[in-house]
């Protein structure tokens, strides 16, 4: 059992809610994924607009726990203010903390991330930091009070999969008891299965589902991959070897 | 009084943040979050939050996110 700030999720698949062709397809995808969490955000609202209200009603209908993000923030101050706004609007102290440091890769700014995390933990937030696979940064985030880590697989929306297998394996090994979620860069279900086989506790997917030709069907495929990857991790996979080892017994083999 | 709301210029008479939302026509029952000059202002504090010339106000609502 994995607890995220004391909460056991119904599924190890977390799903983003952006970029779907329609609200109906989004709802279908969330249901077919059996998502344990959906991520949400905040944007400017014009007077008289009902867009925010309509989205809020959709989320309530789904009945899935929400994880608001601070997407688009480039400084610790912006992220802290956005987190407070999200807590009031969504009624949760969970926050997926994003502080972007580089615009081509949307790479997290680990320095500002740690600063923001420290402030938000003191303000009572349960912080899910979107981070690189940096071991020292992870240590700082844990020291700041984060109880979950969310390393990237690859740049957001790239679909490249797990760019740094060694780094992700090392991070998992260094902090075996910390709930960790691979967030961003996953493109196909096999990437998600690979993250789970490494021992990650969950994956967060958005673009790979939303931009699929059939998002709901892809959501189901990801759900199956996450489950398969987790089962494989628990079942303790064999060690990889460089040389062949016969699987058929050689004892008693005929000499012809 | 000239202020910026979501990066748009407005000339308003509202003395407080709560009055501003009414003056601009925001629905009082809507799920909105506000910030003044980059700092969060809780809904419960809007009625007591005075505006000033050149104030920068952000009014945000739920939206899809990844």
Automatic annotation (TrEMBL), chain A:
<feature type="domain" description="Thiazole synthase ThiG">
    <location>
        <begin position="5"/>
        <end position="249"/>
    </location>
</feature>
<dbReference type="InterPro" id="IPR013785">
    <property type="entry name" value="Aldolase_TIM"/>
</dbReference>
<dbReference type="InterPro" id="IPR008867">
    <property type="entry name" value="ThiG"/>
</dbReference>
<dbReference type="GO" id="GO:0009229">
    <property type="term" value="P:thiamine diphosphate biosynthetic process"/>
</dbReference>
<dbReference type="GO" id="GO:0005737">
    <property type="term" value="C:cytoplasm"/>
</dbReference>
<keyword id="KW-0784">Thiamine biosynthesis</keyword>
<feature type="binding site">
    <location>
        <position position="157"/>
    </location>
    <ligand>
        <name>1-deoxy-D-xylulose 5-phosphate</name>
    </ligand>
</feature>
<dbReference type="Pfam" id="PF05690">
    <property type="entry name" value="ThiG"/>
</dbReference>
<keyword id="KW-0963">Cytoplasm</keyword>
<feature type="active site" description="Schiff-base intermediate with DXP">
    <location>
        <position position="96"/>
    </location>
</feature>
<dbReference type="InterPro" id="IPR033983">
    <property type="entry name" value="Thiazole_synthase_ThiG"/>
</dbReference>
<keyword id="KW-0704">Schiff base</keyword>
<dbReference type="GO" id="GO:1990107">
    <property type="term" value="F:thiazole synthase activity"/>
</dbReference>
<feature type="binding site">
    <location>
        <begin position="206"/>
        <end position="207"/>
    </location>
    <ligand>
        <name>1-deoxy-D-xylulose 5-phosphate</name>
    </ligand>
</feature>
<comment type="pathway">
    <text>Cofactor biosynthesis; thiamine diphosphate biosynthesis.</text>
</comment>
<comment type="subunit">
    <text>Homotetramer. Forms heterodimers with either ThiH or ThiS.</text>
</comment>
<comment type="function">
    <text>Catalyzes the rearrangement of 1-deoxy-D-xylulose 5-phosphate (DXP) to produce the thiazole phosphate moiety of thiamine. Sulfur is provided by the thiocarboxylate moiety of the carrier protein ThiS. In vitro, sulfur can be provided by H(2)S.</text>
</comment>
<feature type="binding site">
    <location>
        <begin position="184"/>
        <end position="185"/>
    </location>
    <ligand>
        <name>1-deoxy-D-xylulose 5-phosphate</name>
    </ligand>
</feature>
<keyword id="KW-0808">Transferase</keyword>
<comment type="similarity">
    <text>Belongs to the ThiG family.</text>
</comment>
<protein>
    <recommendedName>
        <fullName>Thiazole synthase</fullName>
        <ecNumber>2.8.1.10</ecNumber>
    </recommendedName>
</protein>
Automatic annotation (TrEMBL), chain B:
<dbReference type="InterPro" id="IPR010035">
    <property type="entry name" value="Thi_S"/>
</dbReference>
<dbReference type="InterPro" id="IPR003749">
    <property type="entry name" value="ThiS/MoaD-like"/>
</dbReference>
<dbReference type="InterPro" id="IPR012675">
    <property type="entry name" value="Beta-grasp_dom_sf"/>
</dbReference>
<dbReference type="InterPro" id="IPR016155">
    <property type="entry name" value="Mopterin_synth/thiamin_S_b"/>
</dbReference>
<dbReference type="Pfam" id="PF02597">
    <property type="entry name" value="ThiS"/>
</dbReference>
<protein>
    <submittedName>
        <fullName>Sulfur carrier protein ThiS</fullName>
    </submittedName>
</protein>
């Amino acid at each position: 059992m994995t607890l995220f700030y004391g909460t056991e999720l119904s599924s190890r698949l977390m799903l983003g809610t952006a970029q779907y062709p329609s609200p109906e397809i989004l709802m279908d995808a969330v249901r077919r994924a059996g998502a344990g969490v959906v991520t949400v955000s905040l944007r400017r609202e014009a007077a008289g607009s009902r867009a925010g209200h309509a989205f809020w009603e959709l989320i309530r209908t789904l009945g899935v726990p929400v994880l608001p993000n601070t997407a688009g923030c480039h400084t610790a101050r912006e992220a802290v203010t956005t987190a407070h706004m999200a807590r009031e609007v969504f009624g949760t102290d969970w926050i997926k903390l994003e502080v972007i440091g580089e615009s081509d890769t949307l790479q997290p700014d680990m320095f500002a991330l740690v600063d923001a995390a420290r402030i938000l933990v003191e303000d009572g937030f349960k912080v899910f930091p979107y981070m690189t696979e940096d071991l020292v940064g992870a240590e700082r985030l844990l020291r700041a009070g984060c109880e979950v880590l969310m390393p990237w697989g690859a740049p957001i929306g790239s679909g490249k999969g797990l760019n740094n297998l060694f780094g992700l394996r090392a991070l998992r090994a260094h902090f075996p008891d910390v709930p960790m979620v691979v967030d961003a860069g996953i493109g196909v279900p096999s990437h998600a299965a690979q993250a789970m086989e490494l021992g990650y506790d969950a994956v967060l997917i958005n673009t790979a589902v939303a931009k699929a030709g059939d998002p709901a069907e892809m959501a189901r495929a990801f759900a199956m991959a996450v489950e398969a990857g987790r089962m494989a991790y628990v079942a303790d996979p064999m060690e990889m070897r460089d040389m062949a080892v016969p699987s058929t017994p050689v004892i008693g083999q005929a000499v012809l | 009084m000239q202020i910026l709301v979501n990066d748009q210029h407005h000339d308003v008479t509202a003395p407080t943040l709560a009055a501003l939302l009414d003056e601009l026509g925001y629905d009082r029952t809507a799920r909105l979050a506000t910030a003044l000059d980059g700092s969060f202002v809780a809904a419960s504090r809007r009625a007591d939050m005075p505006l000033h010339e050149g104030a920068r106000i952000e009014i945000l609502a739920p939206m899809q996110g990844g």
